[in-house]
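Figure 2 data, in text form.
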Amino acid sequence: MPQLIAVDWGTSSLRGARLDDVGRVLEEKSAPLGILNVANGDFACVFASLFSDWMKPAGTVCLISGMAGSRQGWAEAPYVACPAGPDELRRRLHWIEPGRIALVPGLSDEQGEVPDVMRGEEVQIFGAVRLGGLAEGLFVLPGTHSKWATVQGGRVTGFRTCMTGEFYGLLSRHSILARTLEADAVLDDAVFLRGVERAGNGRGLLHNAFGVRALALFGRLSPAESASYLSGLLIGEEIHLQELPQGREVIAIGASTLTARYALALRHRGARVRTFGAEATWTGAKALLG
C-alpha cells in the first residue's frame, strides 16, 4: 500500500495527517486556511505550502475530503447518491493529479422533493465503521450542520441534516437572546438537560426559544445558564426528531466538546453512545484505498 496523506479541508480550516502503510498516524498538522480563506482561489499553492514535504516519497497518495471538493473549492467532485459505501466513493474520486492527489466526492440523499448533501462526514462515517467493527448503525456528526446517517451493510443508506450549530450561533449572538446570554459559557449539565426536556414538550422550538428570554427576565436563568439551556433546547429538538428506541446505540463522531453534549442528551433519552474523534477521518481515508 502507498503512503497516504489524508486531508480534511473545510470551510474555515483544514487539517491533515500522514499515515504509514497500515494506517498509523505519523504526523498531523492544521491551519486556518479553509476554502473561504484561500487567496485568489490558489488551492494548489496552499496545498504545496503545507504538504509538499509529505508528498515527496515516491508512490505517496493524498485524498482530500470536505469542502475542497465543492463548487466553491479546488474543483467540484460530484456527489455520489445513497446508498453508497467506500467502493462507490473510490470509483468516483476526482483526481487533481492522476494517481497522486484526489478529491473525495460527498454524498447526496433524495428526500421527497428536497435533496440533502454532505461533504467530509462520509469519510468519518466509514472510518468509524471500520474502527468499531460495524456493519450497520445510527450515526450523528454534530457541528454547524449536524448530520444523522443510517448505515446498513457498511453503506450509508440515507441521512438528514439539521442546522443546529448555525442556529445556536444566530440566536446566541444576533437575536434578542444575545442580550441576556453568555454564548461561550462553560456547559452546565443540569441546565442543559432542562433544555433537552423542554424541547420534548410538543410546543415547538419557536415557542420554547422565547422562554430563554423570559426565564432570564424573571431572574430564573443567569447569562451563563441561558447558554446551556438554549443549547439543550436546540440539541433536544434535533434528537426528538430521531427514532430512538430505548437502549439503541448511537455513534457520535466529531470534536469532543460537541460529542459530549450529544452523548449527555442521548443518554438522557435512554440511548447508548459510542464516540470517535479525528481518528475516524484518518481511518476513513484509509478505507477508501481498500
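Caption note: The chain is about 35% helix and 25% strand.
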